[in-house]
Each structure stands twice: as C-alpha cells, then as structure tokens.
Amino acid sequence: MSTSAAREARARELEEKKKRLLDYRNKHPTAPVVNGATTSTNTPSPNSSPSQSSTPSTPSRNATASPQPTTRANELDRFINSTLSSLVPPSSTPTRSTSQQIDEPQTEVLERVIRAASSNERPNRRVVLSVCPNVVTVDIPPREVPTYTKETQTRDTYGSEEDDNNTHFLLSSPTPSKKHLVPHLPNRKDGNVGNENSSETTSPRSPRKEETQTPSQAPIELDPEEKERIESSDSYIDFVTKSTRIIERALAISEKVDFMADYSKSLDDETRAQSRTNDIRLAHTLFDERWSKHRSITDISWSTKHPELILTAYSANDAAGANDPDGVVLIWSVTNFYQSPEYVFHCQSPVMTSFFSKFHSTLVVGGTYSGQVVMWDTRAKSTPVQRTPLSSVGHTHPIYAMAIVGTPNAHNLVSISTDGKMCVWSMDNLNQPTESLELNNKAGKAGVSGVTHANIAAPVAVTSLSFPEGDVNGFLVGSEEGTVYQAFRHGTKSGIAERFDGHFGPITGTDCHPSRGNIDFSHLFLSASTDWTVKLWSTKNANVNTHPVALYSFEDSTDYVYDVRWSPAHPSVFVSVDGAGYADFWNLNEDLEAPIVKSKIGSRALNRAAWSLDAKKIAIGDSTGSTYIYEVGELGVAQSQDEWTKFESLVNTLGTQKMGSNTETEDEDVHKEEAETQSTSDI
Fold this sequence. Notes:
Layout: H1 3-27, H2 50-54, H3 69-87, H4 106-119, H5 161-172, H6 209-212, H7 224-231, H8 234-251, H9 267-277, E1 281-286, E2 297-302, E3 309-314, E4 327-333, E5 343-347, E6 351-356, E7 363-368, E8 373-377, E9 386-387, E10 399-406, E11 411-417, E12 421-425, E13 435-438, E14 440-441, E15 458-459, E16 462-466, E17 474-479, E18 484-488, E19 495-500, E20 507-512, E21 524-529, E22 534-538, E23 552-554, E24 561-566, E25 573-578, E26 582-587, E27 597-600, E28 606-611, E29 617-622, E30 627-631, H10 642-682
Antiparallel strand pairs: 1-30, 2-3, 3-4, 4-5, 6-7, 7-8, 8-9, 10-11, 11-12, 12-13, 14-15, 16-17, 17-18, 18-19, 20-21, 21-22, 22-23, 24-25, 25-26, 26-27, 28-29, 29-30
C-alpha cells in the first residue's frame, strides 16, 4: 500500500470514530465524563441497606434495565481508552490514572483526541522539498593516515616460496600499492589478512576505499567549431608532428643482433670473409606517394651532423595540379619505421641540386632550374628562408652544381649555372654575391663533333662541380660538350686553366678523390658521361703534358652513366650508376677490367648515388622518384693500410704507361701535320 492510500484510510477511520463518539453523546447527554472516562455516583438507594449503599455498583453488560450512570461511564471510559491507545503511541501520549482525572466536557475530550492524533509524527509523513539555487557541494575526502604493523616487516611461519618471490617483486617495485603492504600473507575470503583479529592491522582512523574515491567527471565535449580551431592551430600541428616522429623512431629502435656471431674468430678472419662475399642488401626504399610520385631524383646527400638523415631532391611533376610546387626536397631518417619524410621543403622551381650545409646542421641549400639559390631551415616552415634574386646580379640559367668550401669560421657557397657564370655567396646573405667569375672556353672547342673554332671564347655549359679535398681555390667542372675543365677562383690563372678531353658525350658527373688516408690522392678524379664510360684522371701532370689523357677508362656499362662516386673510406673503391638500372662497384686494387659487384637495382634509369659517411650504406635514386638504401657491409671500407700503398703503386703504374703512350701519340700528330704541310706545298 502506498503512502497516500494509508493516509486516506487513516483519515476515514478517524472520521468514523468521531461520528461514533458524537452519536454516543447525543444518545446519552447526562453521562458525566471525567478526562475521557466516566465514574459512578455513590448515592444510596432508599431500599438498600447501609452496607450496600457504601459499596459501588458493579457494571453489568447483559442488563435489560435502563443503563445506570456508572455502567455508561465505564463503557465510555473503556471506549475512549481503546481509541486513544490505537491513535496515539504510549510514548507520546501519557495516560492519566483514575485518581488524576478531572471533570471535563465531552467536547474537549474529543478535541484533545483529534489534536493528539493529528499532531503525532508518523513514519509515512509527506515531505515537501524545495529547490535552492546556487548550491555548491564540497566533497573533502578524509586524510589518509597510513598505519603499519609488525606483520608487514616479519615473515609468517606459513609463508611459501611463491610468496617469497612475490615479496621480492613487490619490494623491488618503486611504488607499491596499499593492498600489498602485507604481500607475503595469504588473502582470505573474509577480508582479514594474517591474523584472525583484523582490527590489529587496520587502523580505525584509516578511511574506507569507497570514502576516498571521488566521482569521475565526464569529459567535456567540444563543438565542431572549437575542434576545428584547435586542430588548425600551429601549436597543435607542431605537437602532433613532433610526437609522430618520436613514436616512429621509437618503433625502429630495436637493433639487429647477430645471434650467430662467432666471437672466437679474429678480426682479420672476419674481414676477409666479409670481403669475399661482397654482397649488398636492400635495407630501405624511400618513396612518398604525395611528393615522390611522377618525379625523378635529381640529387642525394647525407647529413654530416646526423648520419641517419638523408636528403633527396626531385624534379617537377608533370601531372601535378596548379597548386603543387615544382621543386621538392625531402629529408628522411633511415631509422624511421614507417619510412615517412621528416621534413618537406618546396619552392616554385624544380630543384636540380641540393645538400646539407657542412657547417650548419639545420640549413639546407638548393639550386633551381630558374637560376635561384634557395635556403631552407629545419626550424622554420617548408618555404625557403633565403633566396637569391632573379636578375643579372646572380644566375639567370639553371644551376646543376654547387658546393660549400672553407672552414667552420670562414666558408662560402659556390654556385655555377649553365651559362658559365660562377657566383660566391655568403651563407648569411644571399641578396648579392661576394664575387663572380665567367668561365669561357678559351681553347675554342665548340662541341663534341670535333670542329674547332680558333680565337672564339664560348661560355662553358657547366653540368657538374667538384672541389679537391682541402682546396678552396682550384676546382673541376664538367660540361655539356664532353670536356672536363680545371679552373681557379683567384690568382693569375683565374678562370679556366686546363681541359681534359676524352669523352664523346656530355659530362654527367665528376668526383674528386676524398683522400682521407696517409697518402694524398687529391689529384685524382673520376668523370662519368653519356658515352657509356667512366674515366680516371690526374691533375698532377696536367701542366707537363700538352694533351692530358685519362689514366684509365672503364667501359663495362651498356647505357648512359649518370653518376660516379668515390668511397669515403676506401682509396680504390667507387660506384657508378647507369641508365639500364645497374650499380657497378669497382675496386681497382682487385680488378681494373670489371666491377667486383654488379647489382641490378631496378628496371628504370638510376640518376644519383651517394655513400654514407662510414661507407657502409649507399643511397641510389632512380627516375621514378624512389631512393634505395643498400647496406654494403665492408665493401667500401679499407681493411688495412696496405690498400693505400697498393693503390699508390697502381696509380704510378697507370701514369707511367699513359705518359709513354701520350708521347707516341704526340709524335704521330707531329708527323701527320708535317705530311699535311708537305702535301699542301706540293699542290
């Protein structure tokens, strides 16, 4: 039964009892009532004896005669007492004894009964609630008081060996939880730990777990506009970008462990075994669907400050949209698990050459097809932070080659365009070059056809640039006419000083020997050409010979040779890549006729190659925009100092042979000229 139904039943019951009392009053108006009870009057009857008159009359329920006052009073008294006992609890409404009763009218008795019944508090009393605004509820959790007992420091007699292991694990943990304060004692279903009397191990002041837990707050839901504003903010983008890089690097931290390594073998045995294999293995393929697709590799460079970083430059994308930039430079990390670029730089002209600055770890320099020299900074955005002007002050033709020369305290950027103009720039200011030089072909050779035009100074269309190790004045440039020129920035020989003829196609790459050993080979350099050959040259005897010739010509390729690079850690090792997709690894100390390793990289043309600083990796780029990172082991590393001595002996032998053949060639030319002169005079 509900609360409202109980109230209604109680009200009906009171109304019925009230009516019964009023009816009884109307029927018996002369009944004396004293405090809700009636008493009889001790009036002697005239026919009764004195003894009978002195005793009160006894009420009779079954009497047929008219009711006497005493009987009516007793009945009324019992009825009222039963009513009061059912309406009012004994504790709240005391009952008066007969001796304390006072004569009162029946109306007052009824009113007293009703008031007592209505004023008494009942269990199902209706409660009216009101709403109070601005109510702040403060929930202050009780302060936790940690308590300790001797049981947490001593071992129980019934502890097992497994419990000891758990104890050792928990004690070694930096922050054990409270439920492990007694780790070596078994848990019981009743919640007591250790002793049967759990009151000794639990402080009465320690709060219960339910009391210390605070209700969890629901996360605040942001509207779409707020989400878009946060996601488009620079701080949010920087945070997500940096965090993503860190996570990707962390996924690739695991180093490869050679569990089959034999530590009983000496270093010499291991290096000889490695040199016999001469195998290369593909480690990574760098390709980004957004930036590398439909582009070809134009340049590759490794960072000198961070050996795991590699730079790749790309040509224009013919299928790109109107908003896509023409020039793109990507910086990768070979430790990145997902092989995504770390940085993306771009400009409005195709990048033909690019590399890391040797003396600034955050700067990247690039030469463009429009003739601009641009500079990016990894601390800034993807657009260039500096660029040269497009005017006659700088370059107005494509830049295919650049270099940084000097020392950390005094260095410059040297750039050469296809119109033969060389400019020297300060890394702090690219608005105007500090010096410039025009490279002209003073000998008058106009092209690869062999036609000579005397006394005609034509500009040199430079395609490559290389500075010898430690030299800031002299340099070598390759040209479209198939000739390699030696030139100088300063002095009486400023400009072109010597030419090296021998190729029958444009020069695609030149590289001076790094010469990082106890013997100086800085006079040696390699040249690659579209005539399918790679040639070895020396500048040492260039001024002695009238017509310097190559020390050796490597003719194993079957297509255009697009690039050639010396190994930075081996004096006689270099790599060349060609248009057929082959990478040839040469070791001149072992074989001059054929490469020691000839690897098929892909079906497309290979454009560029670059060794890592330790010469244990090599990066090769192709015309599809893919860059392949190969691990070459000890192939490009000298195993002993004897490699330098052997290579020196080889170079001296080749030089002696070429000098003798050059003398014979000169004598033949003299005889031919004399014969032509004689025949002309006879005519």
